[in-house]
Design brief:
This is Lipoprotein. The protein has 138 residues and is of the alpha+beta class. It contains four helices and two strands. A two-stranded antiparallel sheet has the order 1-2. It starts with a helix and ends in a 6-residue tail after the last helix.
Amino acid sequence: MPRNTTLAVIVLPLALAACGTPQDRCISRHTGEYRTVSRLLAEVEGNLARGYAWEERQVVRDRLTQCRDVYRDKDGNAQVSYTPCWRDYVDTERYRVPIDPAAEQRKRDGLAARKAALSDRAAAYVRACKTAFPEDGQ
């Protein structure tokens, strides 16, 4: 089998499986806000438990690596040589940030109330998606 055909045979089922079932896509599409609020609430609760928050920043650093140089010799043939050189790369650093516990508790209370308000609607969408797109074994 040609290489491209073999690759397609291997990758295509994986790509299709990654898309999820129609039921999964329906649930995901209709519960996005609920999942976002839940994630934010968990983050705020973690901040309160730790006493600080985490933030990230991008830092540019340089690193010694091998650079590839292509040139033509006197006969016109392409030649490749490798030489050491410095290249920039971007690194992500996590660092601690102090929090205001009172403000963080207010944020937690607001997110908890929002999650409770979205909970019934999200559950209704999940039931509707399961009804509209039944899967085997359910």
